[in-house]
Amino acid sequence: MDIIGYVHFRLALAAARFYFTFRSLLKIKASLILTSPSTMNRDLQGHYVTISTVGEKAQAFVPAPLPPDPPIEWTPALREKFDHALVALGRLDSVATLLPDTAVFLYMYVRKEAVLSSMIEGTQSSLSDLLLFEMDEEPGVPVDDAQEVSNYVAALNHGLRLLEEGLPISSRLIREIHGVLLAKGRGSGQTPGDYRRSQNWIGGTRPGNAAFVPPPPEELSRCMSDLERFLNDDPAPTSVLLKAALAHLQFETIHPFLDGNGRVGRLLITLLLCEQKVLRVPMLYLSLYFKTHRRHYYELLNAVRLTGDWESWLEFFADAVIMTAGQAVETARHLLNLVESDRKRIETLGRAASSVLRVHQVLMAHPIATSGWLVGQTGLTAATVNKALARLEDLGIVRELTQQQRNRVFSYRDYVEIFNRGTELPE
Predict the structure, then answer these.
(1) Would you give the distance in Å from CA 227 to the centre of its chain?
(2) Domain 347-420 belongs to what architecture?
């Protein structure tokens, strides 16, 4: 059995094991999970308070604590959708154990999510721009855009380190990743790492004509304390996928920061799945689905707040997991096929193959690079790296982007193309 066939076999085996493990978690005897009333009678999921800001009065929404009351109505269709989402996550998680070099592939997965999540907020940076920025090269977009995406990568990595050190998902962790997210660039003046002390709003030019007004600053401490208790299974245990779906929406409703709330809210999903060992590494990028269905996403958030329609939101969230987990698995398969094919072609080069393979290995982690940067990463001489790049160009594996004699930039083009799917900048 070749490596690709072996990977497919292990994916199926791991998915089955994951399904039966997490299916049992959905049967936790908590009212949040098991209650299935025949009719649902919810209304406003919180209350309004009158605020006075910028010379006028407005109504700010303060959400009720989680879990929802009445509890979620687990119809057979909704249960089945969550089952499918858990299987999809199991297949994705198994990829992490089967890739030849997980860290190499993960480097690009994280950056793809960073680009997508930042793009939702209007940042115009592509994956290629981010890779150029990380090498101190000039990106094709404003530097602040590339800096924001780079900050997202740093915030995710910081959150994962805190989890490894034993810090649970908490108000402290949320504030710390926010501090990293806004440490540099445009958001650095928006009190990084601190909850807001002034009123914000979503849409419109002021609270009086806004689409949504989050809780006032004096309510934030209680709202975030309630959310932290829910994240840590108080008042009752909650299965991790359900917890991620509910907590993401609640965080977006609270909107505790002056800037960066959307990105932190999406990071929260990834960190929860990694904390609970549903994913060993952050290979799920839900931002792709949220970006594609942005209008419906916001409609669902509002429907939950106004009418308590949590079930429609959970269906959407499960669909997002199923779709993006499946796409991530397919990305891994395409990458494995490409890398195996390219290695076999390189191995035909005879004595030169060794140095070319070293350059190829580095390009897998960072598929846009200068020859000088590759010298530092491989430990090879400049002459050897340039010869290796010339051979990779002859094989059609890399392409030189600048058409210059100096400071040339090379792209592992097919590798980049696989990761670029879904990250196209808007016209």
Answers:
(1) 20
(2) Orthogonal Bundle (1.10)
